[in-house]
Design goal:
alpha/beta; Arc Repressor Mutant, subunit A; 6 domains; four-stranded parallel beta sheet; four-stranded mixed beta sheet; 26 helices; 15 strands
């Protein structure tokens, strides 16, 4: 039986715990980069461990695949957390506290491993320190961690985040991962809540996502101070806002963590809060001066994105708010301390177009201000963009409807009124037909809401009684959702038929990494003169900014600038899956867009991601679409439903 590594076990368990219903062996194999036979072996190992612990079956198997018993699997996972990564993190925490250094032989004995294992762990720790100001110094068998206290605290935070599930804030896991022996778990929640309340009272909008992250940093600071590792120095004179916030933090740290912070720690933590947790609002916003350099960079980036992607974001209020955010973002980037965002993955997969606009803005801002902006920070920019676009996006989703209700007293008026009152602006009734024999062929609205049977019902038709129940309103909403999707995908099918071609279809796509896949898919487009080599290099650079793996199956690499001579798409399908960033994908769609056809970008980009986000659709397209003709047929069949 094939043995699975600790990392692969963690990923498999995470997929099963977060999966919705049954997951096939093939789907699990694709995501793990192994064979279905290996998956069956791994499941057997997990169930064997659960049986030995008298916990029952952790993963149920059946004709539809596998499904987790969440309670059993979560318990088993907690009991099996001890792993090479756990030992590595414990070793880092020991180095952090060992002022005179750590003896390799003593560490090996304490961890019950060989000297060679500890040496291998030290090599991995050096890798962890590559992007920091920390370093390891060796003297015989003694290893010492060199670096300032702030960098040490950031390393503790990184260890904690490495063990946290995406989008969660498990205090027990966090406290253990960070080694916070002096901090009470129960203090986190009340501390974070009261910090938010105090910040709101001072006139700030609170970023609740970042508040939990900053609570971690403050808890780490409290733990380090209690161990005699306070920050002694301060930089410059604090202004009024900083002094008020420092008083709040001082009070809350004593109340919840039983630690009195010194001036150096309070200044550092005040800076963390001001650059991560809050956005100025009301009077506080007026007190914040916009940095002219940052404002110009944001204005340029927003204007370019608005033109390039045809989105309505170039407004002064939006530019000001985003500039306030970017000012803090730049400070975090220059300190190599990005703010975590638990919604990054869901924003990327559910709103790919919004995320793409955010990537464009982040790229321009980063280039102008000479900072690197990571995915989590791009996700915060996407939240700003999404908030601005929400109103116009809602307007675009309004469907027109015709009510067919033969007149009897005011029945048609009551029906019209109830629909308008209950469904609001999402459906606009443009015509009411009261005759018993309407001209059905002349009805061209998105929906037909009728109390009589039409001669040929279609997907637009919703048959209703004269007096609507809640269930009837639900059926109208469901029909509207199906119709919106149908209209979107119909546009996609029309676009794809123009942009796909047999010479730009590669199956199997074989590549060791993202860059190799991009270059292979670009070759037929370069040969046809659709793109040049510079476009290929720009696509590789775009991939380095933020992974274009928008779903668990699909990557859509593309350049930020639409410089293709005409729009075209090159499709590659791997046998199994390919590594792509932190994920694995099976389908890669290299998209090349021209400036003249940039209106097609939103249609193709968002809807292509939508189609390939549905596991059943992907499985059908991949299994049945062996050649180019078969791929087109299956893609069309999925789009047509």
């Amino acid at each position: 039986m094939e043995r699975m590594t600790g990392q692969r076990r963690e990923k498999l368990i995470s997929i099963l715990l977060h999966g919705d219903g049954w997951i096939t062996a093939a789907a699990l194999a694709d995501r793990l980069g192994v064979t279905p036979r290996s998956v069956r072996s791994y499941i057997a190992q997990i169930n064997a461990r659960a049986a030995r612990a008298d916990q029952g079956e952790a993963v149920e198997s059946g004709p539809a695949g596998y499904r987790a018993d969440r309670a059993v699997l979560a318990t088993l996972r907690g009991e099996q957390r001890a792993s090479p990564r756990d030992r590595l993190h414990r070793l880092v925490r020991e180095l952090l506290d060992a002022d005179q250094g750590l003896d390799v032989f003593v560490a090996a004995e304490r961890h019950h491993v060989s000297d060679a294992t500890v040496e291998a762990d030290l090599a991995r720790i050096r890798g962890l320190l590559e992007d920091t100001t920390l370093s390891l110094r060796r003297g015989g068998s003694v290893v010492t961690l060199d670096g300032d206290e702030i960098s040490r605290r950031r390393l503790v935070s990184r260890l904690a985040h490495d063990e946290m599930e995406e989008g969660t804030f498990d205090v027990g896991v966090l406290r253990r991962a960070a080694g916070l022996e002096t901090v009470d778990d129960r203090a986190f929640g009340p501390f974070t809540q009261q910090l938010g309340a105090e910040l709101a009272a001072l006139g700030y909008y609170v970023n609740e996502f970042a508040a939990a992250d900053v609570a971690l940093h403050i808890a780490i600071a409290a733990d380090r101070v209690s161990r005699g590792r306070a920050l002694e120095t301060t930089r410059g004179e604090a202004d009024e806002d900083q002094r008020r916030l420092a008083e709040v933090l001082d009070t809350l740290c004593v109340r919840h963590f039983d630690v009195a912070m010194g001036s150096g720690d309070l200044q550092h933590l005040t800076s963390l809060v001001l650059t991560r947790v809050v956005a100025p609002g009301g009077a506080a916003e007026e007190r914040v001066r916009l940095d002219p350099t940052v404002e110009e960079a944001v204005r340029t980036a927003v204007t370019r994105a608005a033109h390039g992607y045809l989105v309505d974001i170039a407004h002064e209020d939006f530019i000001r708010r985003l500039t306030l955010h970017v000012q803090n973002l730049v400070l975090r980037a220059r300190e190599h301390a990005p703010s975590r965002n638990p919604l990054t993955r869901s924003l990327k997969s559910d709103f790919p177009m919004i995320f793409q606009v955010a990537v464009s803005i982040a790229s321009d801002v980063g280039e102008q201000l000479e900072v690197t902006i990571h995915d989590d920070e791009i996700a915060y920019i996407a939240m700003h963009v999404g908030g601005r676009l929400e109103r116009s996006r809602q307007a675009e989703t309004v469907l027109t409807a015709t009510i067919v209700c033969p007149g009897y007293y005011e029945l048609h008026e009551l029906l019209h009124s109830r629909i308008a009152r209950s469904l609001g602006p999402s459906i606009e009734v443009t015509e009411v037909l009261t005759g018993v024999d309407p001209d059905w062929e002349a009805v061209d609205t998105d929906l037909v809401l009728t109390t009589i049977e039409p001669p040929q019902p279609d997907e637009r038709t919703v048959r209703l009684p004269p007096f609507l129940s809640e269930g009837d309103l639900g059926r109208i909403s469901a029909a509207a959702a199906r119709r919106r999707r149908s209209l979107r995908l119909a546009r996609l099918r029309a676009e794809l038929s123009r942009y796909l071609s047999e010479d730009a279809f590669i199956r199997p796509l074989v590549a060791a990494d993202e860059e190799e896949a991009i270059r292979a898919l670009a070759e037929p487009l370069v040969a046809r003169g659709v793109i040049d080599q510079q476009y290929v290099e720009n696509t590789v650079e775009r991939e380095q900014l933020s992974s274009t793996a928008f779903t668990e199956t699909l990557a859509v690499p593309h350049a930020l600038r639409m410089t293709a001579s005409r729009t075209a798409i090159s499709i590659g399908i791997a046998d199994g899956s390919l590594p792509w960033g932190d994920s694995r994908v099976q389908v890669v769609a290299l998209t090349a867009f021209s400036e003249e056809e940039r209106e097609a970008f939103q249609t193709v980009f968002e809807q292509l991601v939508e189609v390939f986000s549905e596991r059943d659709s992907v499985t059908r397209i991949i299994r049945r679409g062996e050649g180019f003709a078969g791929f087109l047929d299956e893609l069309a069949a999925v789009i047509d439903g």
